[in-house]
Automatic annotation (TrEMBL):
<keyword id="KW-1015">Disulfide bond</keyword>
<dbReference type="GO" id="GO:0016788">
    <property type="term" value="F:hydrolase activity, acting on ester bonds"/>
</dbReference>
<dbReference type="InterPro" id="IPR008947">
    <property type="entry name" value="PLipase_C/P1_nuclease_dom_sf"/>
</dbReference>
<keyword id="KW-0255">Endonuclease</keyword>
<keyword id="KW-0325">Glycoprotein</keyword>
<protein>
    <submittedName>
        <fullName>Uncharacterized protein</fullName>
    </submittedName>
</protein>
<keyword id="KW-0540">Nuclease</keyword>
<keyword id="KW-0378">Hydrolase</keyword>
<comment type="similarity">
    <text>Belongs to the nuclease type I family.</text>
</comment>
<dbReference type="GO" id="GO:0003676">
    <property type="term" value="F:nucleic acid binding"/>
</dbReference>
<feature type="transmembrane region" description="Helical">
    <location>
        <begin position="294"/>
        <end position="315"/>
    </location>
</feature>
<keyword id="KW-0812">Transmembrane</keyword>
<dbReference type="GO" id="GO:0046872">
    <property type="term" value="F:metal ion binding"/>
</dbReference>
<keyword id="KW-0479">Metal-binding</keyword>
<dbReference type="GO" id="GO:0006308">
    <property type="term" value="P:DNA catabolic process"/>
</dbReference>
<keyword id="KW-1133">Transmembrane helix</keyword>
<dbReference type="InterPro" id="IPR003154">
    <property type="entry name" value="S1/P1nuclease"/>
</dbReference>
Length: 328
C-alpha cells in the first residue's frame, strides 16, 4: 500500500488515482490509431485536458469548482436497509449516473452525432462515470435508525480507523479503494509506479475470472447493480458492529475494490471499441493540422508572403509620395 496523506484531496467519487487507472486500463484495449483519434477529438477543446486518461477526473474538477449542475450524475445510491430501520422509504427520482452514462453511450454510437464537441464531452463523461458506476459507495447507501434518510453513500457514517484522514468516514475509505489508491496528483515517479500496478491488475484481476457472465457488459445498470452487491457484501456486510475498519476489513475491501476498478477499465475499453465498430463507416473526420516539415514550410511561406506584402506596401507608399511631390 502507498500511504502519502499529504497528497490526498477530499472528493466525492473514486479518488484521482483510481480514475486514472480505469482510463489507462481502457487505453490498453485500443489500438494506437484509435487512441490517437480519441485524443485528437479531445484536443478540439483547446482549454481542457486533451489526453484520455487525463480527462478521467474532469467531472470531479468541475464539481470541485462548485458547479453543481451535474452533481447527481456521480451516483445512484440504492438502499441497503439496516434491521433497525423503521422509516417509510421512497427513492428520489433524479437524473443520475446510469442516465448520464446511457445517454453518452447512445450518443457516441449514433451516426447522427457528427459534432466533435459533443463527442469530446461524452468521452470525458464516460472516462469518469464508467469508473464511478463501479464504486460501491456510488451505488448504495444504508438506511437505519441512525440515518433514517440514508447515510449519503457512507459520507455520514464515521468509522474507527488507525490511518486517520483517509478513513474518516465510510465514503472516503472506499473512494481510496480501501487505502490502496491514495496518491494524487501523481508525480513522474508515481506515474511509473502506477504503470507497474496496471500490469498487476491486468495479470491478476481479470474480470472474466470473477464476473464471467457479465465482464464484457456495456450496460450501466449491470455495472451499478454489481457494485451494489459488492457494497452489500464488503462495504456494509463486513463492517463490525462498532464500525471499526480493522486490517481484515481493509484488506478484503481493497481486494474487492481492485476487482471493480479492473472491471471498470475493461468495460470502458469495451464501450470505446464498440464505438469504433459502430462508427466505422461514419466516423467524423478530423481536421488534419500540418505537422513536422510541412508545418515549418508553411511558416516559411507565410513569412515570405508577409515580407513581400510589407515591401510592396512600403513601395506603394513611397510611389504615392513622389507623385504628390511632382504635382506640387
Amino acid at each position: 500500500m502507498l500511504f502519502v496523506f499529504s497528497l490526498i484531496r477530499v472528493s466525492k467519487s473514486w479518488w484521482g488515482a483510481p480514475h486514472y487507472t480505469v482510463a489507462r486500463l481502457a487505453e490498453t484495449r485500443l489500438s494506437p490509431e484509435q487512441l490517437k483519434y480519441i485524443n485528437d477529438i479531445l484536443e478540439t477543446w483547446t482549454s481542457e485536458k486533451a489526453v484520455f486518461h487525463d480527462t478521467a477526473n474532469w467531472h470531479d474538477d468541475i464539481k470541485a469548482a462548485n458547479v453543481a449542475i451535474m452533481a447527481n450524475w456521480h451516483f445512484r445510491n440504492q438502499p441497503i436497509f439496516s434491521s433497525d430501520y423503521e422509516g417509510d422509504f421512497s427513492y428520489p427520482t433524479t437524473y443520475n449516473i446510469t442516465d448520464a452514462s446511457k445517454d453518452c453511450i447512445n450518443t457516441i454510437m449514433s451516426e447522427t452525432t457528427t459534432s466533435q464537441w459533443i463527442l469530446g464531452f461524452c468521452f470525458r463523461t464516460l472516462s469518469h462515470f464508467v469508473a464511478d458506476a463501479h464504486c460501491p459507495v456510488h451505488s448504495a447507501g444504508r438506511w437505519s435508525k441512525a440515518f433514517p434518510d440514508g447515510d449519503r453513500g457512507g459520507n455520514s457514517q464515521a468509522v474507527v480507523c488507525t490511518y486517520g484522514q483517509p478513513c474518516r468516514n465510510m465514503h472516503m475509505l472506499w473512494d481510496s479503494a480501501c487505502l490502496d489508491f491514495q496518491i494524487w496528483p501523481l508525480s513522474k515517479n508515481d506515474v511509473d509506479e502506477y504503470e507497474k500496478n496496471l500490469t498487476n491488475l491486468l495479470n491478476n484481476y481479470q474480470p472474466k475470472t470473477y464476473l464471467p457472465e457479465t465482464y464484457q457488459s456495456t450496460d450501466p445498470d449491470v455495472w451499478e447493480n454489481e457494485a451494489y452487491r459488492y457494497a452489500s457484501k464488503y462495504v456494509y456486510g463486513n463492517l463490525p458492529d462498532d464500525f471499526t475498519a480493522n486490517d481484515t476489513y481493509i484488506k478484503e475491501g481493497a481486494n474487492a475494490a481492485k476487482q471493480l476498478i479492473s472491471a471498470a477499465g475493461y468495460r470502458l475499453g469495451e464501450v470505446l471499441l464498440k464505438f469504433f465498430e459502430a462508427r466505422k463507416n461514419s466516423l467524423p473526420q478530423l481536421y488534419e493540422k500540418p505537422k513536422g516539415t510541412w508545418l515549418i514550410v508553411a511558416w516559411v511561406i507565410n513569412g515570405i508572403l508577409i515580407c513581400v506584402s510589407v515591401v510592396y506596401t512600403v513601395g506603394e507608399i513611397r510611389s504615392i509620395g513622389k507623385n504628390r511631390h511632382h504635382k506640387i
